[in-house]
Each structure stands twice: as structure tokens, then as C-alpha cells.
Amino acid sequence: MPMRFLATILLCLLVAPAGGAPVATASAEPLIFLYNDHLKEPYIFVEQGQVVSGIHWDLAQYLGQKLGRPVIMREAPRKRVEQYLLEGKAHVLLLTNPAWLPRSDLLHWTIRVYTEHDQIIQRQGRTFNVESLEDLSGKRLGTIQGYIYEGISDAPYRDSIIRDDAVSFRSNFLRLKRGRLDAIIVPQAQSDHLFRTEFHRAMFHVVTTWSIPHELFSAVSPHSPVSAEQLSAAYRDMHRDQYFERILARYR
């Protein structure tokens, strides 16, 4: 049996709604889920210009099943994500935070989807103790261009921590491996994926004594055919049934 066909069957089992839940029909208005053009694996996997899997794709399929809506995935430039939502060019931005969007008050928001942890990762042989932001003072920290990091982006640490931006987490892993950085900061889902697919975990040290947690929600367009409360109800079911943990497990 082809692996992609098998993966499709497994995904259908993963996101199949509970008894009595709506089933998507062609006549229902599609839900358009937005992702920015910087989003990479494991959040979005693209083949021949089409999203085929990933954490965001799996979550969108689950919500489409629960709400009886066909699903469309739409890419947007990162700086225009908010504009797409406000103009109704897309309906839902899945995993985000109001603090990251300048006009978040004009959007509708769901309950918390989950809490992600940004981990500090060092190179083996060049480790140092980290129990607070203070321990990163004077260190060159690999970060992602345009990202807002709680605490690190604020005074006094924005001056004492040497932020060294790159365009991707993979680039930061490579720079850390080559000794050009003291540490990098990476979401756990991203580091799990890169350790599984490319980098040898034994070459790196993941700090377990401290991390930066941030809560993730979904931003909903005022023009969405489903409300933030409807999406929140689906998320409550998801939390109860631990579906999101199963989605994350596919990419670890």
C-alpha cells in the first residue's frame, strides 16, 4: 500500500469527528485557513505547491470535520497576514497570539489552543547553566528575524542579550553547530522535528531547567462563516479527547 495513501487513512482516523458531528459538504462555504510564507515543516508540508500535511494542516482538517466545512489552505506574506483576515481573504489564523498582531483588537479570538515552549538549545561541550533570562545576558542567541520573544524583546534584556537573527530555525542549528552562536531558541515542536529529520540530538544540549512558555490561540476574521465561539467549542472537544496531542505526536 503506498505510504501517502496509508498516511491519508491514518489522518482520517485521527480527525474523524465524534458521533453526531457535522460532515463537510460541497455546498457549505469553505473555511479558509491562513498561514504565512515563512511557516515551514513540521507546521506545513508542501508538495508541488499544495499543502499536504503538517500540524496546521491536520488541525485545519479536524476543524473542518467538526464544523462541517470544506477546508482551503491559503498562503500570505507574513506582513500581510492581519490584512488578509481583516479583509476576509482568509478566515482563520490557527496558532498565534494577540501580542503578535498590531490590530488584534479588530479580530475575534478563540480559547487557548495549547501552550508552546520555546527551548534554549546549546552545543555539547559549550554548555552553560540557564535558569532565567539573566543567564543569557552577554550571550549570542540565535533567533528568528521578525519574531517577538517574551522577555528577550523587552528591556532590559533586549540590550544585554545579543540577538542574532536568521531566516530559519535550520540556519540557527547550523550556526550553533559551527560554534557561531552560544545558544539558540526554538519551539519544542520545531526542535523535535529537526532532531528527528536532520540533526543528531547527541551533538546538542536542550536546557531543561528553563524555557519560555507562550499560549497560542486562533485569530478569526470578522468575515468568517464560523464564529470564534464555534471554533472554541471544537477546541474544547479537542482538549477533552486529546486530539491535539495526537497531532503533535505525528511530527515528533
From TrEMBL:
<feature type="signal peptide">
    <location>
        <begin position="1"/>
        <end position="20"/>
    </location>
</feature>
<protein>
    <submittedName>
        <fullName>ABC-type amino acid transport substrate-binding protein</fullName>
    </submittedName>
</protein>
<comment type="similarity">
    <text>Belongs to the bacterial solute-binding protein 3 family.</text>
</comment>
<keyword id="KW-0732">Signal</keyword>
